[in-house]
């Protein structure tokens, strides 16, 4: 179903956007070009110019089943007609119960207690607060720092920024405001490369030295996203779990980007066969329909917090458990649970590897490395790129790819057809190797 574009956006509205509306990581005085999307369906975004683009981004990891999905639309409309929102304090409802049941069933059996919240960053705040409250309840309030790894990214809110890589230019302005958390060197050994214990040495040293003041380790399992789209060795994650157990430190895994199948496992932690104490999920949880996230912890974490000096966990967002978001999330997870995602993601991975192989083997003077894991393909350039210029070239080729830093990368909806994926990869390769682009 391709929606018809009946009219384009008036110039005055485009000017208003430039003059009055912040976009992510944008400037009000020198706004980058913005493309005006009128509608989206399947894997296509329809621009007001009449052009359609194959979406390579899933709206930043979210739209795993594509846009304008009839079952998701119907689930949302049905719920809105019943009850679009109601407070969650002292009240519960079917969509929240069904969603939490799916989350408990889909995740590791040890993860039992769900806290619903509004966005990925907020779920990270909640996880950090749970870790601090856990140790406070155990009468070890000195355990309130976090150990993380460089190149990590956990969101843009205050707590989340201070467990993200302090050298990342996204947050460096703010680092002087925050707690002095501890950072180990980022893992260097790739997903498929041979493991060497040296990779975990710095982490080992830091946890050994500081464990008495560390509440939790927090990291993105297997794939570091905004810090460079880097895939690391599952052995690293295995060792992290062992060291957390050895030194009595909680492990928080941020599966906000990697969750719900993206890396070829339902959750990326499954590559290492480990379970965290607390886990954050978001993004694909509603298939990109509405904003929602969740924090899922072990019963033991929940019990300790509940037995502490406040007797409850100290967090309660207004839009907690929003029924419309929960209902569309339930349908999204039902679609996921039919199992088709596995062969979709495996097929995407196979095609990405096949199409990238010649360039991986021959190399290119502008390209540093090409990486693939599940439904994620990354070309890392040697030099930073002109985002607006590259973006324009992608749009001319009929694809939506949003480069950043030195990275050209895709994580398409799982439902993408082989033809569309071929065109997406062709576009990525031709832009990356275009000698006329700086
Ligand atoms: N953690 C990770 C790993 C992320 O990729 C993101 C979003 N890019 C976040 C946290 C923050 O999520 P949100 O943007 O929904 O606040």
Layout of secondary structure:
Blueprint: H1 11-20, E1 37-41, E2 44-47, E3 52-55, H2 58-61, H3 70-82, H4 94-106, E4 111-117, H5 120-137, E5 145-149, H6 158-161, E6 182-184, H7 201-210, E7 214-219, E8 223-224, E9 230-231, H8 234-246, E10 250-254, E11 278-281, E12 293-298, H9 299-306, H10 323-337, H11 340-362, E13 367-373, E14 376-381, H12 387-396, E15 399-400, E16 407-410, H13 418-432
Parallel strand pairs: 3-15, 5-6, 5-7, 7-10, 10-11
Antiparallel strand pairs: 1-2, 2-3, 4-12, 8-9, 11-12, 13-14, 14-16
4'-deoxy-4'-aminopyridoxal-5'-phosphate (PMP) is lined by residues 119-121, 124, 153-155, 220, 225-226, 254, 256-257, 282.
What does this structure look like?
- With 438 residues, the chain is an alpha/beta fold.
- 36% of the residues lie in helices and 16% in strands.
- The strands form 4 sheets. Strands 4-12-11-10-7-5-6 form a 7-stranded mixed beta sheet, sandwiched between helices.
- The longest helix has 23 residues, at 340-362.
- The chain is globular.
- The protein starts with 10 loop residues before the first helix and ends in a 6-residue tail after the last helix.
- The relative contact order is 0.15.
- The model is unreliable at 1-6 (pLDDT under 50).
- It binds 4'-deoxy-4'-aminopyridoxal-5'-phosphate.
- 4'-deoxy-4'-aminopyridoxal-5'-phosphate binds at residues 119-121, 124, 153-155, 220, 225-226, 254, 256-257, 282.
- Its cofactor is pyridoxal 5'-phosphate.
């Amino acid at each position: 179903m391709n929606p018809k574009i009946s009219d384009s956006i008036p110039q005055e509205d485009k000017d208003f956007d430039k003059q009055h509306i912040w976009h992510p990581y944008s400037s009000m005085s020198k706004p980058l070009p913005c493309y005006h999307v009128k509608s989206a369906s399947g894997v296509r975004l329809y621009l007001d110019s009449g052009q359609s683009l194959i979406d390579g981004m899933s709206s930043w990891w979210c739209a795993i089943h594509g846009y304008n999905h009839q079952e998701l639309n119907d689930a949302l409309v049905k719920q809105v007609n019943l009850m679009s929102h109601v407070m969650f304090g002292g009240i519960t409802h079917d969509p929240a119960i069904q969603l939490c049941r799916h989350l408990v069933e889909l995740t590791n059996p040890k993860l039992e207690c769900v806290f619903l919240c509004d966005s990925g960053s907020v779920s990270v705040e909640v996880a950090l607060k749970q870790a601090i409250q856990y140790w406070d309840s155990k009468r070890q309030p000195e355990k309130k720092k976090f150990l993380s790894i460089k190149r990590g990214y956990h969101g843009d809110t205050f707590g989340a920024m201070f467990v993200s890589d302090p050298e990342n230019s996204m947050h460096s302005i703010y680092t002087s405001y925050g707690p002095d958390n501890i950072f180990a060197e980022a893992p260097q050994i790739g997903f498929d490369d041979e493991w060497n214990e040296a990779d975990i040495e710095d982490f080992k040293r830091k946890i050994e030295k500081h464990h008495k003041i560390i509440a939790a380790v927090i990291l993105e399992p297997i794939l570091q996203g905004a810090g460079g789209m880097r895939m690391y060795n599952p052995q690293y994650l295995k060792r992290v779990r062992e060291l957390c157990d050895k030194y009595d430190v909680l492990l928080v895994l941020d599966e906000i980007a990697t969750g719900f199948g993206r890396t070829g496992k339902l959750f990326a932690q499954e590559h290492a066969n480990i379970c965290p104490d607390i886990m954050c999920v978001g993004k694909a949880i509603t298939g990109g329909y509405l904003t929602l996230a969740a924090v899922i912890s072990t019963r033991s974490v929940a019990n300790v917090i509940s037995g502490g000096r406040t007797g409850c966990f100290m967090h309660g967002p207004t839009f907690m458990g929003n029924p419309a978001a929960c209902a569309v999330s339930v349908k999204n997870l039902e679609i996921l649970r039919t199992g088709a995602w596995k062969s979709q993601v495996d097929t995407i991975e196979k095609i990405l590897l096949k199409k990238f192989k010649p360039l991986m083997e021959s190399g290119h003077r502008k390209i540093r490395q090409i990486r693939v894991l599940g439904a994620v393909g990354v070309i890392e350039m040697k030099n930073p790129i002109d985002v607006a210029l590259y973006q324009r070239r992608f749009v001319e080729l009929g694809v939506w790819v949003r480069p950043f830093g030195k990275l050209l990368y895709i994580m398409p909806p799982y439902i993408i057809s082989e033809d569309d994926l071929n065109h997406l990869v062709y576009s990525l390769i031709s832009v990356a190797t275009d000698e006329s682009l700086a």
